[in-house]
Structure formats: structure tokens, C-alpha cells
Amino acid sequence: MRRGAALVAMLLALLAGEAAPAAPDHSPLPRPRPVLMPRLLPVFAPPVDAVRPRLRPAARTAARSAPVRMSGAASASLAGMRSLWPRLRPSGLVRPAAAAVRAPAAPVATSSAGAVCGDRGIIGVRLAPIEGRLAGCGIDRPVRITSVDGVMLNRPATMDCETAKALKSWVKKGVKPHVKRLGGGVAKLEVASGYACRTRNNQPGAKVSEHGRGKAVDISAITLANGATLNVQSGWGKGAEGALLTRMHKSACGPFGTVLGPESDHFHKDHFHLDTADHRSGPYCR
């Protein structure tokens, strides 16, 4: 009966002039044209601080910061891998620079100028102990001398008291008696060197010089009151001046344990080296 009803409906539709329903159109739909977004100026961009919280939600941050539990084997394996990684240098750690060579500190005076070494004929100041940069250098009780037996030094010389007393003795008994009143008498000693922490003759690998122990002083000339000089380098072996220098050189052998001059070697061609070293065989003088 349902089929018959459908046929009756169709006939009624044809009689009424109605067209049959159109077949469905399966052709593809046209693609929509892309819509171009306008470029936003930087002034309308939201601040970075406002966006940053959205990029890192609190839940994710908390999840990342939570410790991860591992099995014993996995933890041991990870520890072994970390031991191979280089350790980071702490930010506050600064690599020390190469040690610089420091100049020796100037000796510090511990007294005012006046008589030293218990001798009124030795004028100078007492100094604090001196430590040398080389093994064997230094002076326990140094003095800086400015004059001996009334004769000025052209520059202060640092030494120990034993050497200062030997220098005074030589000036009093070996220099003045030979010069006498020549040129008005002895006025000044020209000091080439006093205390100096170095090896003998500045030779590499040599023993420490007596200068490094404060037991030596080098004299290059004797200046007279009238300004004339008895110069070791230019006057040695020449006439009356050479004769005076030879006698003064010889007179130093006794107060000093070592006396070297122009005839000893080329290192002493321009001065007398005088030191208070103690030699078993007695004074060494050349």
C-alpha cells in the first residue's frame, strides 16, 4: 500500500506541472581567497614581560623544577657521564697573573743620623734587617754610612758594622797618612758599590758576593779638599798618583780580609774591592 501511495503522489505532481527535484551538484566549491593581515607596528606589540608569563605557565615551570627520580643504575650511569664533563670555573674566580718580579724594598732607617756601631768616628743611621732575594744575601744589623773619620762618602753605603769599622781604620791609618796635606788633605771617598745582593762579579752560577752579605765596599777614587782626585782607573801605575794609590791599596790589607785592585783581574780595573771575609790563610790581597 505504501508503494501505491507513492505512485499516486507522483501522478498528482505531474498533473500539477511540478518538476522533478534537481539532482545534487557534486562539483567542488571555489576556494576562498586568503585574507591578508595588516602588519602591526611595534608600538602595538604587547611588552615582553606581559607575554613571558604566558609562555611559561606556572604549572610547566613547577613541573620542570621538580626533581626527577631515577633508578639506582640510571643515577650511577648519569654520574659517570657527568664526571667526564669539564667543571665550570666559578664566576668569582680570577686566574692569578704571573708573579711579577718585585724590586727589593728600600732599607728602613731605625735611628736618626749620628754615630753608629758604637764608634763616634762612624756617622750614619741604623737600618732594619735586610733580607736578600738570593740565598745567602742579607744583613742582620745593617748601617747606612755617610762618613768615616771625618771623611765624607760621595753617597751613603750600606754595610755591617764590622765592615764600617774596617773602612774607618783604613781611612785613618792607610789613606790619610799617605795623602797627608796633598791638595788640602782627604775630603771624600768615591764609593762605587756597597751592599748589593748579587753573585761574585755578577757571574751566573757563581757564589754570592761579599757585597750581598754587607761585608764589602768598592772605592773608585779619593777626592782631595782642592777638588783633585786620585782615580784608580786613570791613575793606577802612573807617576806620583799611581805610587800613592799603590800604597793605599797595600795599607788596606789587614783591616780588610780581601783587597782587590787593577792587577787582580779585569773586573777590578777601575776600583778597589775591600771586604771583611775571613780567610783561613790570612788576608788575600792582589
From TrEMBL:
Signal sequence residues: 1-22
Name of this chain's protein: Extensin-like C-terminal domain-containing protein
Tree of life domain: Bacteria
Keyword Ribosomal protein: no
Pfam families in the cross-refs: Extensin-like_C
Extensin-like C-terminal domain segment(s): 133-286
The keyword Lipid biosynthesis is assigned to this record: no
Keywords: Signal
